[in-house]
Amino acid sequence: MSPPARLVVATRNEHKLRELREILAGVELVALDPEVELPPETGATFTENALIKARAARAATGEAAIADDSGIAAAALDGAPGVRSARFAGPRASDEENLWLLIDSLAARRDRRVAYVCVIAHLDEAGAERTYEGRCEGTLIAEPRGSGGFGYDPAFVPLDTGPDDERTMAELSAADKHAISHRGRAARELARALGLDPGAGAPGSGHSGPPSGARGRR
Ligand code: IMP
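Above: inputs. Below: predicted complex with inosinic acid.
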């Protein structure tokens, strides 16, 4: 398969778009026209929501499209906030409000385990659908630190940096975050499937991580 020259990205989240551009450096990623309305994310899973957004972008443009649906799942909260991560503290909640609600929700809990999950859905020009999943395990701390990344990053200490490294995702460089993040892992699976260079920091080039999965839809 020859790699695509460009992909439309179905997102309104500038942070995600920036990270996807940093990770998928070999392809032009074009933000979906703001005039195109994205359908509500009514899916019960990251996969369903990623497909809802990617289908809408392809339907509106006729071009190959991708969409990322992602979030954080706390073990002590049975996986919440999960698909509701962007609106955990309410429909118009800021990243900071969502972060503090999660910190408060875990305040009395001993189980601090959290996981970032990202599913990227890809629709090619003909409409064939595939999804790619990446995970990143970590623990949630009570006092946020760092100014990098976005969302829950200032309170998320990843396991992949090792037991002696207490830096949060927001204290890592962008490249170090992408090497271990849920989005980095899912995007590199996509890159490999499309014949793109999966980029520095990819598993197999020095870093490795838990398995990510690709699933074909048709
Ligand atoms: P979505 O737009 O429904 O996929 O919402 C994703 C939400 O999950 C974001 O708004 C963040 O709250 C959270 N999230 C996803 N990925 C990250 C990340 O890499 N760092 C921090 N928070 C994230």
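The longest helix spans residues 46-61.
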